[in-house]
Automatic annotation (TrEMBL):
This is 33 kDa chaperonin. GO terms for molecular function: protein folding chaperone; unfolded protein binding. It comes from the Bacteria. It comes from Oscillibacter hominis. It is found in: Cytoplasm. The keyword Transmembrane does not apply.
Length: 297
């Protein structure tokens, strides 16, 4: 089974939810960025959260960017989702290696850090994007995402995220869920959601095996009847291209490009998300400089 995203609603109309299985796209990110296990776990959790948030936009061409700056050794973690839930991302230092926690789990909280912020940028294809930022709670990411929704969007939210890494450092299971209360939900609904989460257990245990997000969501929301509204495939998808990199170079201006031409004779540009390298020769740089000059005439 490939990576999937589902959206659902409780039949009583009080709860909406999303769930994703993201083993393949997290493994793809691991291979691209040569991530060590704690970086795999941190980036994988962020990719899963961004996927669900991006899919929830329902704005064609829209996107969601999740940026975590916790002050820990991993540095900045960035994940970007399109409106379908396809994601890409990176972590500033992919080779951080920390001892396991006393319980034998990866120490994501220490790697991320606890003294910074989680920022969400929503591009709704309007003049200005929506930007919300809140302080990190603990750097484990799931509770930080939930806190973002509570503080920045005033939506009571429960979030579960998980990445299980094999001994050979490959990804065995990955994914997560978002459960949100809709307006008018009575107090006992909160208790039912919390009880279901506690009874279901960790995300990685629910996804280990076939990795079916619907089965995971039904386990977590065992006290509710739910209706699945959407099921769609998702993947690690980068939108970089040579044309985009050309436009990025042109945006630097003729003086900057002339300096590159003089000092380097050409330039290499590497995409942060997929590590694809584009090389521009001296002649190609000169063509870009000439095009800038032509536009000014």
């Amino acid at each position: 089974m490939g990576d999937q995203l589902i959206r659902a609603i409780s039949k009583d109309g009080f709860v909406k939810a999303s769930a994703v299985s993201t083993r393949e796209l997290t493994e793809r990110a691991r291979q691209i960025h040569t991530l060590l296990p704690v970086a795999t776990a941190a980036l994988g959790r962020t990719l899963a959260a961004a996927s669900m948030m991006g899919n929830a936009l329902k704005v064609e061409g829209g996107s969601v960017t999740v940026q975590i700056k916790g002050g820990g050794p991993l540095g900045t973690i960035l994940a970007v989702s399109d409106d379908l839930g396809n994601v890409r991302g990176y972590v500033q230092d992919p080779h951080v290696d920390l001892p396991l926690r006393p319980d034998g789990k990866l120490d994501v909280g220490t790697a991320v850090g606890m003294g910074g912020t989680i920022t969400v940028i929503k591009d709704l294809r309007m003049k200005d994007p929506y930007v919300g930022s809140v302080a990190l709670l603990g750097g484990e990411i799931a509770e930080d995402v939930a806190q973002y929704f509570v503080e920045s969007e005033q939506i009571p939210t429960a979030c579960g995220l998980g990445v299980l890494v094999e001994r050979d450092q490959s990804v065995r299971a990955a994914g997560g869920y978002l459960i949100q209360l809709l307006p008018g939900a009575p107090e006992d609904v909160i208790a039912k959601v919390e009880g279901g989460i506690l009874a279901a257990g960790p995300v990685t245990g629910l996804l280990d095996g076939e990795g079916d997000p619907e089965s995971m969501l039904r386990a977590v929301m065992g006290d509710f009847e739910i209706e699945v509204l959407e099921r769609s495939p998702i993947e690690y998808r980068c939108y970089c291209s040579r044309d985009r990199m050309e436009r990025a170079l042109i945006s630097l201006g003729a003086d900057e490009l002339s300096g590159m031409l003089k000092e380097q004779g050409g330039v290499e540009m590497t995409c942060q998300f997929c590590d694809q390298v584009q090389r521009f020769s001296a002649a190609e740089l000169q063509t870009l400089i000439d095009s800038i000059g032509a536009r000014k005439k």
